[in-house]
Amino acid sequence: MDGLVNFCPLLDYVAEITAPGAFMLLDIGCSGGISRQWRRLGSRLRALGIDPDVREIERLAAREKNPLITYVNAFAGIAPDHPFAIQKQGKPDLERNPWPRLSTLQYMENVYTPHKKISDKEKRSANLWPTAQLADRSSPIIVSEHLQRNGVSSLDFLKIDVDGKDFDLLNSFDRALTDLAVLGVGIEVRFWGSASETDGAFHNVDRFLKARGFELFNLSLRRYSTSALPSRFVSRAPGPTESGRVHHGDAIYVRDLGSVLYDEFANSLAADKILNLAAIFAICDLPDCAAEVVLKFHSLLSQLCDVDRILDLLATQAEHKVFGIASYNRHMERFLREPGRFRGTRNPLPRLARAWKRGYLKWRGRMQLLKLERRGT
After folding, report:
1. Mean pLDDT of 151-158
2. Where in the sequence is the domain holding 18, given as residue range(s)?
3. What is the mean pLDDT of residues 351-368?
């Protein structure tokens, strides 16, 4: 899932003051593992990963040391009598699909030939999951019902990435988004498709989630070149290319509780949920939105944590401070008294310095996250 940051001091603080399992994450399509950035929540994190890849689920379960993180080997689906499933009957999953014309497919057909032995790691990195041993497709689980059966009454972040039926699964959560008080949704979206209301193109995902009280806060773009003139891949694995048409990306939707439009929903939430919302904004590299929530619900959060410290940690993230903790009050004072310091610049030296700080913090955060993952926290 694009958009999650390695450097997130607020999550470290939340992990210190937390109740075990107070943050619930659901990852549908968890091949490769749950994004390690969430592990900064420590014992606060409770997670469920679902994926049809038999060996991958076995691998993830065997290496998982956190008892609050579990995995299910199954296809996720939508009930056949669901209104969306009925409306979609007889319609294809992927309309106007450009995939057969893209250079990535041509590369994979040239390199991953039928007689070549492909490792499980290669299958994951090249997204060759259809060639892997998969769960029984005829017996999918209805995830919202599975959560209910297992006593899950609150869900903080829902991630969906299943390469095809993402919109179907999102529709299966139509009532559950409210019943479980879901705060954030991360979903893979595509920028091609038809005008059909059941097509999983971005415009339908956007309309669906906005109708249920979510706002778009982040959107990544991945390009794919055609086989008529291939472009270099962005990474070592075949996939997005440096140039080409906009193909798909990851969209992150969150409850915008800083707005008065959603006060009715916000007033129904306990302090723990508000703190989880601030954590979601922070991990999505939106410390400003987290600060807005913290300030608005200052009195409620003060029963649970040190709000001034949270604001300082969010300022630390916003300033990309390499050493020590920033001061939120000083940050705001500079903005009011020295607004010129917040202007951009074309001078390459300060731009290089800022890029170095971001790169260093990303690397340092990744090393910290790898240690947390090895410890199983």
Report:
1. 96
2. 9-301
3. 92
